[in-house]
Amino acid sequence: MSTEPETTEEAGPRTPHAPEVREAQGQETAPEDSSAAGDGATESAGHTGDTQDSEGVEDAEGTDKAEGAEKAEGTDGEGSSQQSEAQAELAAQRIERERIDRRKAERQAPIDSGAKLSGTAADLLAAVRAVESGRKPTVTALREPETAPAPRPAAAPAPVQPAAARPGRRRAGATDPEAVEAVRRVLGEGGAPETLAPQMAAALGEGAGSALREDPWHLLRLTGVRPEQADGFARALLGPACGPDDERRGRALTGWLLEHAALAGHTALELPTLTAALAQRGVPDPDAAVQSTLSEGEALAFEDALEEPGAPAPGAIDSEEDGDEERPVRVLVGLERYALAEESLADGLARLLNSLSQEASGPWETAAAGSSGGAAELARALAQNGLVLHTGGEAARCEPAALLGAARAAGLRAFAVCHTPDGRRRLTALLGEEAGEEAVATVAGLLSGAEGPGRDPDGALDLDLLVVLDAPQLDVEAAAMLVESLPDGARLVLSGDPAVLWSAGPGRVFADLLASRACPQVASRIPDPGPLGELLSGVGIGELNQVDAPGKEIVIVPVRDAGEAVHRTVQLVADSVPRAIGVPPEQTVVITPGHGGAAGTRALNAALKERLNPGPGRFGGFDPGDRIAYAPAPGRTVPGRVVNADADGLHLECAGVPVVVPRDGVEQCVRHGWALTAHQALGSRWPAAVVVLPGDAAQALSRPWVYTAFGRAEHHLSVVHGVEQALPKAVAEVPAKSRTTRLQTLLRPQVPAGG
Question: Are the C-beta atoms of 743 and 718 separated by less than 8 Å?
């Protein structure tokens, strides 16, 4: 690795704080600060990105994933005259969720279990069953005598960023002008910004004003609003009647914690974790708050058996004596949308694995004979299995590409999807332009119906094989919709690099399936080439190696502080990389751990815009030629550039496709995009990448983050290095952050290990 000389420039952090719901200076939030969940929750005073709840409810990964979740609903803008891409995708998701709901309703009554539970777990399970049977559970059922968990010191509050309502909370009548005006009046009475009215009306629907007046803690449904801010709003409206033991407050905080857990990747939370977090937020009786939330149908509870080493499998105990032995269980609480998606995904995967017709293996044998190496191994596995996992790095993408070509040559209806337009471009290059145009799409395009092979009369995808690349980026909802869309007898290949960051949305589908051993796994033997490939191979196994880079493929740029990091980054993008490597600025990406802080995406984008495309920002902070990051849906960011703006909105070009963002959706969906977070950049690659590691980012680093950030470079990587020994320590000692999910538990009884 080579090292460039040091330079120094001061740059101060920009970290606004808002202790109440009203904006700090009584002004409207600037466009760059209105990004909602991720930006509000991640821009704290300490470092570039992450606010972390002591119970793990808010995870540091929320820094990168929030770009999609924080903005997507804003694309449904009130004045939009035609259906936008985000609306089409959300409509497709609603249709698929209705299908999932119907499948759920068709199931028979749950198996009677949990008879041997005691204490809080038993009370909670009894409350759940009471709700399922239509009875009102006893208010005291979950209360334990005397003491509640002692409150822990509260985390430093993040600044509130008013934005769209959380995904999944929208209701009919959201844009009714009368409802918006009614909400505006209530917000004004409580001292909250009246600009929140459209989002609040969208969250509550018909009668939104009355609902907000009766329950001021509904304000927590807006992403970026913190509990202390909602408490201040409630005190202003309710006066002496407002107290920490209010049942409405307990329900709202329970939902808020579960929503933030989902942003951190969890599909559910263990009951002790949830109650401890509620106690930390000043809820006097956390168990009663959980019970109230369950009784109102705002969350679901589950009882999952825990597997102990050497213990017999569930159902393996036959004798009456052995049957009396208690099995360890855990009680979890989660939001309905993620619970149903995870259950639907498990059912769909079991259907693929169990509905396979062995008589249809002939074409797969033909495909195996027409290919070699990993592609042939995949084809042979598909002859006997409905689901196959494929692991490998960037170079290994040639194997699913070869499988796709061989399957189509054998007469099979085969199709592939990637997470991003750039992933589609790279796979198309491997297949050839003509074949790629016919056989490759994006996940979002396939689910929305804008791309893909079409549907059969039953609504299933009309194909025999679906290959999903970038599989680690699938969250439970997208994965469930893909699997539910496959017909019986179809094959599914999930291919990806298990070392990268997990999905921006909740769940860890690919990692759970790898751990479950429920189907064959084909590991590619093709390494990524060159110095960059050697560096990534080491990071993947926890080693940050010195790599010879005679062609300046890897350059280390030491810096002393965040101001110098910003200065050196601009110098690299604008001067050094174009001059020494031959990569122009528009083909170089900057990656940093978070949005806030002195060297976060905001500060870096401001400096890069000033150097590369200066202008007054006359179109909502943007000028023609600006590089942008467009977030049309939760967890999905598409790089692009600004073309112009008119009465219809902001005109963009994203992956060669024109996009018009309505004026009222720009703040929620578009930000400058010279600098991205690792989650935003995931699924795409650039000829050159500059990874910025300022000193205050040390706590945000992990092995998957470093692997993902370094892996965005195709030919050249510059590392602006200010974290000293924190970088090798993160690579060696900080694995992926754990996520609480249920997929393995749900899949275990339906599919024995090994398929």
Answer: no
Both tokens of 476, joined, read 């439970």
8 Å CB contact between 605 and 629: no
Q: In this structure, what DSSP letter does residue 506 have?
A: S
At 436 the pLDDT is 75
Q: What is the pLDDT of residues 182-198, one digit of tens each?
A: 999 999 999 999 989 98
Task: Give the CA distances from residue 690 to residues 366, 404, 589, 720, in Å, rounded to whole numbers and listed in that order.
Answer: 45, 34, 6, 7
Structure token digits, residue 92: 């497709």
3 state SS of 31: helix
Using CA atoms in the order 613, 619, 622, 623, what is the torsion angle rounded to 10 degrees? -20
Beta bridge partners of 650: 645, 661
Which of these ranges, 36-40, 386-390, 700-704, has the smallest mean pLDDT? 36-40
Going by C-alpha positions, the residue among 229, 228, 227, 225 that lies closest to residue 200 is 225
Q: Quote the CA–CA distance of 99 and 347 in Å, as a whole number.
A: 13
Which run of H or E residues covers position 402?
helix 398-409
What confidence score (pLDDT) does residue 113 get? Answer: 40
β-pairing verdict for 269-270 and 329-334: antiparallel
CA distance from start to end of the chain = 45
Q: Show the tokens assigned to 749.
A: 């009884």
Give me the pLDDT at residue 74, please: 38
User: Cα–Cα distance between 357 and 351 in angstroms, integer?
Assistant: 12
H or E segment to which residue 439 belongs: helix 433-439
Q: List, for residues 465-515, the tens digit of each pLDDT value.
A: 999 999 999 999 999 999 999 999 899 999 999 999 999 999 999 999 999
The pLDDT value recorded for residue 659 is 94
Return the pLDDT at 181: 93
Alpha-carbon span 544 to 693, nearest angstrom? 15
Q: How far is CA 699 from CA 164, 414, 616, 694, 727, in A?
A: 29, 44, 35, 11, 10
DSSP β-ladder status, 657-661 and 649-654? antiparallel
Half-sphere exposure of 643 (CA within 13 A, CB side): 14
What is the reported pLDDT for 89? Answer: 61
Q: When comparing pLDDT for 91 and 720, which is higher? A: 720
pTM: 0.79
CA dihedral in degrees (506, 508, 512, 514; nearest 10)?
160
Amino acid type, 72: A
Q: How far apart are CA 474 and CA 32, in angstroms?
A: 28
Strand 588-591 and strand 686-693: pairing?
Answer: parallel
207 by Cβ neighbours in 10 Å (0-12 / 13-18 / 19+) ranks as: middle
pLDDT tens for 324-361 read 556 788 999 999 999 999 999 999 999 998 877 666 67
